[in-house]
Amino acid sequence: MGILSSFRGLVFAMLSSVLSLSVSAQCDIRISGIVKDADTGEPLPFSSIAVKGSPGGVSADMDGKFIMTGVCKGEVVLSVSHLACERMDFRFLLVSDTTLVFELPHKHNELQEVLVVRSRRENQPLLPVSEIEGRQLFEVAGKSLAEGLASINGVQMLRTGSNIAKPMIHGLTGSRILILNNGIRQEGQQWGNEHAPEIDPFVANRLTVIKGAASVRYGPDAIAGVVLVETPLLPYGGGLGAEATLTGSSADFATAISSTFQFSPERLRQLSFRIQGSAKRGGDIRTPNYRLMNTGVNEANFSWAAGWKGEIVQLDAYYSQFNSKIGIFTGSHIGNLTDLQLAFDLDEPLEQRPFSYDIGRPYQSVQHELFKANAVVFAGDIGKLSLNFARQYNLREEYDKDFESRSAGAPELNYEITSKSSELIWDHAPLKGFNGMVGVSYMNQANTFEGRMFIPNYVGNNLGVFIIEKKPLGSWTLETGIRLDNRLLDVYMRKNGVIVQTNHDYTAVSGQIGAIYNLTDSTSVRLSIGTGWRPPGVNELYSNGLHHGASSVEIGNINLEEEKSIGLNASLVHSISKVMSIDLSVYYDRFDGFIYLQPVKPATLTIRGAFPTFKYLQADADLYGFDLMLKHEVSKSVSINSSTSIVRAYNKSRGGWISQMPADRIAFGGDWKHSSLNGMRKWSFGLDIQHVFKQTRGVIDDYVGAPGAYSLLSVEAGCDMFVKGHAIQFSLAIENLLDHSYRDYLNRYRYFADDVGRNLTIRIRKTFGSIE
């Protein structure tokens, strides 16, 4: 409770300091209006509008509308900003109440690596892209990164319990999905189902998922897709702002709090700063019939950012630290083979207790640090040069169940990994209609361990060079790219008292070509074909022994070779009379040497207990499926939608289906929205029904048969309001409203226990000043 109390105190102090800056001038002019995107004419929700030289300001509502009162007569300069656009100043002579329309030009998005924006069509992504931002991002506040992403159709979670989850795109997860944290590839100890991304989702103002092989731009780890965790762009031009978010949930009596403060000095408007911190504490998770013993979580995270924005050179730096302690479900650590089979057969866990926040053994403790420095040079006719450097440090400790023979407090697994990376990108100026980029990246990584070995020490070096070009041709936009990667891996193992070094050298080329065809303004088709590859990970080659968090024994395969693929993607986005839309994405991936984790029997009996056993195998495979989203605007206030996600993974070498793939799922939902008080208050209500079918493929050799199909009903009600220029968001959500007992096939703990029961979550967010 000490950490949470400290963070609450920090938040309240920050909010008080910001509120104290809001002064009431003796003025009576009222300004109302709307902020729009200059390129599209669409409203820009939650834009910031402030009188230059005065503290505070107001925020636009969800429809880009705003009202500002108490403005003085005479000449004023209004500063208008939005996350996706350039900040602009407008000068007016005010004599009475007035209504204004502001249009902001679109800002170049650094993550999209686009130098010149000539039309929206030229910026359309080649692969299917889904985003979570604004109100939708607020509705997943307090959840883990994977839980938030799971609201996107075609994205699931591979889980170990309820507090540990990894994103899965089209049935692929782990080192096949690249996560970019503030523009830097997230590097940690990513092996294992229970090694969740060490990222605080509170730092993000947008989560983006690119579905499909993006290996040309991002390298071998993007063979399945990319997750972009995007932080807000630093605000320049003078001003300050703060934001606080508080969430609470009933299933584990968890509380999470986050606060952000940012500042740009009025006298040095090229400078900008931001600090952010969050904390979370939860206890034993509740299923409909019992609680899961020792499933609590404690987190304490913080970050800071600073930047300088000149006309030619822009500099910024970023640092974040993530700290978590996660309890491992006690019922998954079984003493002998007889009790293990009994745990498989029982409807409830062998060990239970009343609710508690206590986290005992087994548990895992993780710390992750990221430092990033970035420089951008606008070189006129040459284009733009971007250079970044990053250092990441990850410490992971895993604790087994405490036995009398062991010394108290000693972890069984202790790993440290340090990664240093750099990247140079040249966005060249338009050349004969082509827009594109050339880049080179390098990363050095070193891993060491203490205690029992699960994977050996290693040093890795990765070098990549790529070029991507795009050209519009009428209604068509063509894009092509090629990339060369080399990965060197030096592994160090002790054999007979002597350190033996083993070297692995992998080199391959990735390529991609695709097109976007805009049939009409409301209909577009995307087609792409690309190759990808991925060298086997250290865990896939060398893991050998008990993986505590996953409660399983994993066995590597030193004979694994590179995984190669060729993928086809086709997607259609079509709107019918602006009241109905169809978003269909179809994909097919052919893998040579697909690496997968296969259950093998019997279970392994160790001095630490009896555990299910899995071995890494390799085979040629076909993965294919589709994502379908339908939406119908019944009226201006009511809309209904449905989504379907289907994945198939066939083992061509051995026949049959590959295990641990998501079951078919379909969802139906409805939304109602209503604005009042001239748009300054917006109410919403949503209902969602998700049905997950029973997995019938790839389950024959598993320790426990696939769980049955299940349906979950969830509801959410919210309100966005504006009080004295401050934006307040409120949400009340209930997941699994009917408290249905179920087990999900992608949750490793389905062997031992049910999933989460009814969970009520309250979220409150308040924004002060000119935060974006």
Write the layout of secondary structure elements.
Layout: H1 2-19, E1 29-37, E2 48-51, E3 58-59, E4 65-71, E5 74-82, E6 85-94, E7 98-104, E8 129-133, H2 134-138, H3 145-149, E9 155-159, E10 165-169, E11 177-181, E12 184-185, E13 206-211, H4 215-218, E14 225-230, E15 239-249, E16 254-264, E17 271-282, E18 285-286, E19 291-292, E20 297-309, E21 313-327, H5 337-345, E22 363-378, E23 383-399, E24 413-431, E25 434-451, E26 457-473, E27 476-495, E28 498-520, E29 523-534, H6 538-542, E30 544-547, E31 552-555, E32 563-576, E33 580-606, E34 609-633, E35 638-651, E36 665-676, E37 681-692, E38 710-723, E39 726-735, E40 759-769
Parallel strand pairs: 1-7, 11-14, 31-34
Antiparallel strand pairs: 1-4, 2-3, 2-5, 5-6, 8-13, 9-10, 11-12, 13-14, 15-16, 15-40, 16-17, 17-20, 18-19, 20-21, 21-22, 22-23, 23-24, 24-25, 25-26, 26-27, 27-28, 28-29, 29-32, 30-31, 32-33, 33-34, 34-35, 35-36, 36-37, 37-38, 38-39, 39-40
Kindly describe this structure.
With 772 residues, this protein is mostly beta strands. The chain folds into 2 domains: 2-104, Sandwich (Immunoglobulin-like), CATH 2.60.40.1120; 110-769, Beta Barrel (Maltoporin, Chain A), CATH 2.40.170. The chain has a 22-stranded antiparallel β-barrel. A 5-stranded mixed sheet has the order 8-13-14-11-12.
Using brief descriptors, characterize the structure shown.
mainly beta; five-stranded mixed beta sheet; single chain; 772 residues; globular; Immunoglobulin-like; Maltoporin, Chain A; 22-stranded antiparallel β-barrel; 40 strands
